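Shipment paperwork, digital attachment
Item: protein structure file
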Amino acid sequence: MLAEDLVFRVYSACSARRKQHQQFPAIITAMSSLSGKVQTVLGPIEPERLGRTMTHEHLTMTFECTYCPPAAGEEDAGLAPIEMKNVYWLQQNPYSHWENLMLCQETQAVQEELVAYRQAGGGTIVENTTTGISRDLPTLRKLAKETGVHIVAGAGYYVDSTHSDETRQATVEKLTDIIVSEVLHGADGTDICCGVIGEIGTSWPITDSEKKVLQATAHAQAQLGCPVIIHPGRNPAVPAEVVRILQEAGGDISKTVMSHLDRTIFDHGELLEFGKLGSYLEYDLFGTEMLNYSLNQKIDMPSDSQRVQTLAFLIKEGYEDKILVSHDIHTKNRLTKYGSHGYSHILKNIVPKMLSRGITQNQVDKILIVNPKQWLTFK
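Attachment content:
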C-alpha cells in the first residue's frame, strides 16, 4: 500500500467522525514533511542528530497544582528563601514551598545547565510542559538556539486540576483539532510547533475531562503518526487503564511512553504484565530520593540504586528496546544551582552505575540513543 493511500485511509476514518475532509490536502502535506523526522522547537531534524536524549524533563514551568502545606511547626521553612541550610528540607518537602514550584524563574540557571549537559555528551531534551502548567515555547526556542541542545516541546493538556472550564467543556473533536494544530502549525499563538503529544496527565480515578483528552490524543496520534507520552495517576492500575482508553480510541501504543513507572508499579510481576501491552517503559525520576512522597504517602520512593536494579531486571526480561530514562526536573531544588543533581546526573553518575551492574554499553546506548530516536520519529 502506498504511504499516501495509508494516510488517506487513516484520515478518512477520523473524518467520518470529525467532518473535516476539507483539511485533508493540508494534513497530507504536513505529514509528508514530518514523516521520518523529529520535530524540535527549531524545526524538523533527522533522527540521527538527536544523540543522547532525556525523554522527560521540564525547562520552564509552574507547578502550583501540587502544593502541599508544610507540616505543623514547619510553616517558616515553607516561606524561607532557598539556601544551603534548607536544601535537605526542600529535598524531602519539594511541594511545600511556593517559590520552589516556580521553575520558570530560573531560565539563566537552566541555560547554564543545558550547556553543561551538552558538554557531558547530551544531545536532546524532550520538554514535557503542556497546557495548564505554563508552557513557554519562546523560552524553549531561545534555550535551543543559545545552547545547541535539541529541544522537543509537548502538545496537549496536563491533569484535570489544571484544566480550564473551556477545556472541560470542549468536545473530543475540538480537543483533537487543538492538539493537531499545536503539532502542525504552532502552539500558544506562536509558530513554534510541538514534536510530541504530552505529557498528557491523568489522576486516579481518571476524570471525564482527562478521558476526553486521552481520546483526543489518540485521534491526533492516528492522524499524525507522532509520539505520545503519558503522566499516569499515582496508582498501579492507572497505566493499563490509560492504554485501554488510548487503544479503544485508535492510539498507537508502540509509539506511546508511560512515564513515572518508578513511583507507580513496584511489583515485578505486575510490571512485566504491563510491559506486554507494548508501550515504552520510562524511569524518569532519577535523582529523586525522599522518605515521604507527599503526593501519595503510600508510595515508598525508590533510590537511584533501586532504579538501576529495575532497569537490569527489565533488560534481563527482554525489554531493552522499550526502556527510557530521565530526571523529570520540575522544581528549583533539583538544579545544580541549589546543590542538586541537575540534567547531567544520568550521564555523569547513573550510566557508570549501570555499567557496574552488568548493563552493557550497547544496552545503555539503546536506552539513551536508539529507543528515544525510534519513539520520537514521526511515522
